[in-house]
Amino acid sequence: MSHFLKLNFVITSCKTAVSAFFFVMFIVACSNDKPDKIAAIADRSKMPKIHATDITTIISDSGITRYRISTPVWNVYDKASQPYWEFPKGIHLERFNLNLKVDANIHSQYAKYNENEQVWELRGKVKSTNLQGELFETEQLFWNQRQERFYSDSLIKITRATSITKGIGFESDQSMTHYQIKHFQGIFPINENATSTASPSATTETKQSQQVLPQNNSGPTQSKPISK
């Protein structure tokens, strides 16, 4: 009987030791994973400081209201190596003149703004209208706020009341009233009965409209987002 009790005690002790061993190994494994998980959570460069949805906000430039932004999603990555704003579901932006009237507007399916360089990248069915009612359409457009100019290397289509102008590559002032098409393709009348033409004078016209763009080192300041 005593031998049986001793054997049972040994078996029980072994079971306890085995259980304790696996418990310790589990704790060690968990403790090894913990720093990785904490490190991943602590990587602020990939986490937005601000995540806002369905908002409209006003942007000021040197204390003057200059832009109004409407967007479904707005993320601000302030800890990235190059801090930026991202609008993954698109943006509608309106620009105000000194009389607080809208003199241009831009719409795109995606947008990104580099805070340090003050450069916007607009992608996906980019559309913009100027004061003359001209509609500009392209797939990618850059906007340098410091230099106050727009530019693109993509196909550009400009629709007026009676004609459509096409070309590859585009540069413009900020109001999109003085612009140049780099590789002119032609002017196409909207009237379907008319014959499409590529007028040589159009190239001269776009070159004459080019100007030296003013420099402005002041950047935008963000006001508090206003929820819709």
Describe this structure in words.
By secondary structure, the protein is α+β, with helices and mostly antiparallel strands. The protein folds into 2 domains: 2-42; 47-222, lipopolysaccharide transport protein A fold (Sandwich). Helix content is 22%, strand content 47%. It contains 2 helices and 13 strands. It has helices at 2-42, 200-208, and strands at residues 50-61, 64-77, 84-87, 91-96, 102-108, 110-114, 119-130, 135-144, 149-159, 163-173, 179-189, 220-222, 226-227. Strands 2-3-6-7-5-4 form a 6-stranded antiparallel β-barrel. Residues 1-18, 20-28 and 194-228 have low confidence and may be disordered.
Short description:
The chain is an alpha+beta fold and 228 residues long.
Determine the number of helices (DSSP H or I, runs of at least 4 residues). Answer: 2
CATH topology name of the largest domain, in short, is lipopolysaccharide transport protein A fold
Biggest sheet, in brief? 6 strands, antiparallel, barrel
Coarse structural class:
alpha+beta
Which terms summarize this structure?
228 residues; lipopolysaccharide transport protein A fold; disordered C terminus; disordered N terminus; single chain; 6-stranded antiparallel beta barrel; globular; 2 helices
Write the layout of secondary structure elements.
Layout: H1 2-42, E1 50-61, E2 64-77, E3 84-87, E4 91-96, E5 102-108, E6 110-114, E7 119-130, E8 135-144, E9 149-159, E10 163-173, E11 179-189, H2 200-208, E12 220-222, E13 226-227
Antiparallel strand pairs: 1-2, 1-12, 1-13, 2-3, 2-4, 3-6, 4-5, 5-7, 6-7, 7-8, 8-9, 9-10, 10-11
